[in-house]
Fold this protein.
Amino acid sequence: MNDELEVLIGNATTAFAAAGTPSDLENAKAQFLGKSGRITELMKGMASLSVDEKKSRGAAINKAKQAIEAALNGRRQALADEELAKQLKQEALDVTLPGRERGNGGLHPVSLTLERIEGIFGSMGFDVAEGPEIESDWFNFTALNTPADHPARSMHDTFYVEGGSAEAPNLLRTHTSPMQIRHAVQHVKRYKSVIEAGESMPEIRVIAPGRTYRVDSDATHSPMFHQCEGLWIGENISFKDLKFVFTDFCRTFFESDDLVLRFRPSYFPFTEPSAEIDIQFQAGPLAGKWLEVAGSGQVHPNVVRNMGLDPERYIGFAFGMGPDRLTMLRYGVNDLRLFFDGDVRFLSQFN
């Protein structure tokens, strides 16, 4: 290899070493190995040489080209190593830090309340009924003795949905009371032969927890909220039984034997007589205040008929309460919307 090629290799090596970035290196490569580079020019200059000179000259140029390519690849690797070292330094991990533990999930406070309600009434022999959230007008209103001119049937109070007909529209249920009718109708069908024979039908004892919907939203109301309805139908179930059952439930739920209940006369189309149920704590921040927690009453004879039963023989009581409100009272929360905002910092307090 002559001195000219040695100088060319040295110049290429120096140019590659001076390249500080991959783009700079590619520019330097073009000067020596590109289509218009020095090696290409040397190859084109061999055209006037003899055959023997072409062999010796070609071999020398190829050897120089290989040396330049080796220098190029070496610099490429060096730049890649430098970039990797820089990245590792920037993204370095302190292995002495404690590990990050995976957090444990938990039930929503309203779900905890629903489980508690189901457990308490389950111990009293109540079944749990679940059903559709999109209801027919008949189950939601008509079967529950709610007249056509009742405010709850207004579109300002109820979410109506597609389906059904003008006479029998579909809607998002405004309470879980329809499940009382659905459960009772199935119960009556199951014991139809017993009833027709004049024998005593097993009592209907059921609660129906679930989501309900109304056009309402503020600190104590939500368009979607939870309800739990209860129903006990038999041949000798009185208002006295209602007072005993609900008093026992409230004292168990709030773990307070000093809890006082008040049954205040009211009106509901599906019960007669009807009563609002208020509670009063004897200690704590709410001591001395009456707080409404449920509506209740003896099941209206028309509702009993819609269940397929004779109201002259079968009687019972029903109640409806808001698990969301019970959750607020149990945990001291004053804004219902906090339960549905999805803020993990708030919800994690209950688990």
